């Protein structure tokens, strides 16, 4: 087969890691195929598979644009592509070949505060509905997301396959003390700390974590709270809240963390806290487990499905309850050892080798699906 991947969002956190890990493993497992990787400018060095049976094409096509609807079919025709996989759901409405799309979640429909524009939400819903209707197969990351896609978009559940993503192989425990010290120094961390990684969005519930951390300190906890990830407009809001709560000296806003630093940052943490109100999957809790960090986790959305018995759960909307969970995991050494062991076992369920094998099987199904000739017009 000649398979194209639309990877124009490779630079986005989360989905970018999904794209990189999946594509590299698919190419490794199925070297008999030829692959076209459609990338944004300056992303040519993203993949370690460039010396194999792959062709890299850079494109300035904007997502959600008329331009991509015109240019993308032409690219697929010129390269005689047999199948397109779009790991971010967008696909050409006039498709020249069978298509597989990944719909990770319906966050902008379920969490309207993440996309303030009503027109934007309508367009998002329309394009996602079109992709659901036109795609030969649909992949999603969790049973929770599958249910949400059916709920919000009235999709046929039999068309949607759940394939769990994996944990990137480079994210594992770092035991080198000098490396851990270097990362602490780089991000201004001075002592024992609780970690949360994630871009600023209201649904990520950074504010709830700050309130829980205040309660944690009041009830005898100590150390710092490190919040890693781009804050954008949320930075001033959260720093103002930390000041109002009187905890500004104990909170470190680390900002963007380089992928090379992430394993050490996780490994240096005493506890990983995930207070999110909505996640289609929840990569970061698994990454923490891969680095032997005990987890306090929200009870919301897909997180219990992904985490199972490998964390202590707390209501993310209840700062007192979340603080109590942080306190337990911080000070109960037996509980910490058990959570670390459970985490090691749990993250083993999520392997990119397995995800790639299942995804290749979906490609075979899509290719065998009768393709309407009108789609070539």
Walk me through the structure:
- The chain is an alpha/beta fold and 377 residues long.
- The radius of gyration is 21 Å and the shape is globular.
- It has helices at residues 15-29, 66-78, 107-110, 118-134, 143-153, 177-186, 206-218, 234-245, 262-268, 283-290, 303-307, 319-331, 333-347, 352-368; strands at 2-6, 34-39, 54-58, 83-86, 99-102, 137-140, 160-162, 193-197, 224-228, 251-255, 271-274, 295-298, 312-314.
- It folds into two domains: 2-166 and 352-376, Rossmann fold; 177-347, 3-Layer(aba) Sandwich (Rossmann fold).
- The chain is built from 14 helices and 13 strands.
- Mean pLDDT is 91; it is low at 373-377.
- The strands form two sheets. The chain has a seven-stranded parallel β-sheet, with helices on both faces. Strands 10-9-8-11-12-13 form a six-stranded parallel β-sheet, with helices on both faces.
- It starts with a strand and ends in a 9-residue tail after the last helix.
- Helix 1 (15-29) links the parallel strand 1 (2-6) and strand 2 (34-39).
- The protein is 42% helix and 15% strand.
